[in-house]
Amino acid sequence: AKRPADGARSYGYARAEILAAFTNGLVMIGVVAWILFEAVSRILTPSPVMGLPMLVIAMAGLLINIAAFKLLHGGEQTLNMRGAMVHVLGDMLGSVAAIAAALIIMGTGYTIADPILSVLVALLILRSALAIVRESAHILMEGTPEGAEGERIAGDLMANVEGLADVHHVHAWSLGSNRAVATLHARLATGAEPGAALAAIKARLAAEFGIAHATVQIEPESCPDHTH
What we know:
- The chain has 228 residues and is an alpha+beta fold.
- The chain has helices spanning 15-44, 51-73, 79-108, 113-140, 150-160, 194-209; strands at residues 164-176, 179-188, 211-219.
- The chain has a three-stranded mixed beta sheet with strand order 1-2-3.
- Helix 6 links the parallel strand 2 and strand 3.
């Protein structure tokens, strides 16, 4: 994702992380489906479970996943990192559920506790996985970043940038988790200085909406694409 732009990809490779997050979310949904299928099968047809080996392995897994979670927690706050954390969090919850199930089985012999707890963990993972798929799909579909809707941007610029008569054709989207870009048309009021207006528009977009890259078409008169 950090590779520089080239002739084939003028915006760079930032979408790689979004593709990874989208794939990660789909894989997690598949894992949840598999866990639910296996859990239902074991509820309908209970099978013997070795409580002590299950407890030892689950405790070892929990320690490893806690270490992994701490490493990821201090990293970048991107959609892909969230996807990785959901993976680790799912393993961590699975280990906790396995420990609880092993203790119940060792104490009561109630083997059905294992698949029941597995279902609960799977449903918790599913919620996060669906959120990651939804957010990454929104970015891949050139969706508008939250809080950067076209009408909101236009209204903010009109209220805070001098010399504007109209702002229209506003489009904003994301290249990656934290890389919003925008294009817009701005019609100037009589006597306004184009260079100053352009600089003010870009400064406002960066400060208020976090849009560091914007393509602005300055129009001294009517818009050539549409009447305003």
